[in-house]
């Protein structure tokens, strides 16, 4: 499989990615825990079927010290006992924020209230923004058929 367009060298593609990366940098520099950020990116990417982002973020998380047990259980986080209550709240918000078209009314008040129990307002803004950013990346990569498997941790950082 090859990408339909090389977005990294295409002038407009590179410009768009640069701006999305800038938004991502604002989130990565926020007070939202780094492990939570990776779990959110992995789960949204799984839901969206984005192999490129799933490959990237599982490898980056592992390189940052995340365990293979937790990485292997992200897709079934509801049944797994290895995630904190805060991480579970973030994963629920991620799923609901990613599956907007599937959920009548979008993100439920219950999911928001549960996340708000664990994260302050700045962290909630970071979490919302991260969910939007990874969904944008997922859509670009899925539409472009960006191949997965060759990513090296830290390759773009």
Summarize the structure in short.
Helix content is 64%, strand content 0%. The protein is built from seven helices and no strands.
What does this molecule look like?
It is a single chain. By secondary structure, this protein is mostly helical. The chain is 64% helix and 0% strand. Helix 2 packs antiparallel against helix 3, helix 2 packs parallel to helix 5 and helix 2 runs parallel beside helix 7. The longest helix is centred in the last third of the chain and has 24 residues. The chain is globular, with a radius of gyration of 15 Å. The mean pLDDT is 95.
The biggest beta sheet is recorded as: none
Total helical segments: 7
Which assembly state applies to the chains in this document?
single chain
Strand and helix order:
HHHHHHH
**Hey, roughly how much beta strand do the residues contain?**
under 5%
Portion in helices = 55-70%
Q: Give me the count of strands.
A: 0
Question: Averaged pLDDT, please?
Answer: 95
Shape: globular
Using only CA atoms, what is the Rg? 15 Å
Separation, N- and C-terminal Cα atoms: 24 Å
Poorly predicted regions: none
Structural class: mainly alpha
Give a topology summary:
Blueprint: H1 11-28, H2 34-48, H3 51-63, H4 68-73, H5 85-98, H6 109-118, H7 121-144
Helix pairs in contact: 1-7, 2-3, 2-5, 2-7, 5-6, 5-7
């Amino acid at each position: 499989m090859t990408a339909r367009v090389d977005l990294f060298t295409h002038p407009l593609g590179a410009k768009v990615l640069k701006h999305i990366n800038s938004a991502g940098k604002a989130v990565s520099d926020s007070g939202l825990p780094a492990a939570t950020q990776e779990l959110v990116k992995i789960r949204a990417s799984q839901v969206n079927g984005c192999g490129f982002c799933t490959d990237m973020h599982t490898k980056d998380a592992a390189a940052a010290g995340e365990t293979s047990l937790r990485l292997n259980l992200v897709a079934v986080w509801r049944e797994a006992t290895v995630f904190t209550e805060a991480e579970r709240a973030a994963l629920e918000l991620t799923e609901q924020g990613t599956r907007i078209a599937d959920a009548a009314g979008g993100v439920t008040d219950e999911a928001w209230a549960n996340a708000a129990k664990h994260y302050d307002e700045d962290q909630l803004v970071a979490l919302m923004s991260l969910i939007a950013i990874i969904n944008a990346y997922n859509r670009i990569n899925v539409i472009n058929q960006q191949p997965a498997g060759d990513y090296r941790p830290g390759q773009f950082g």
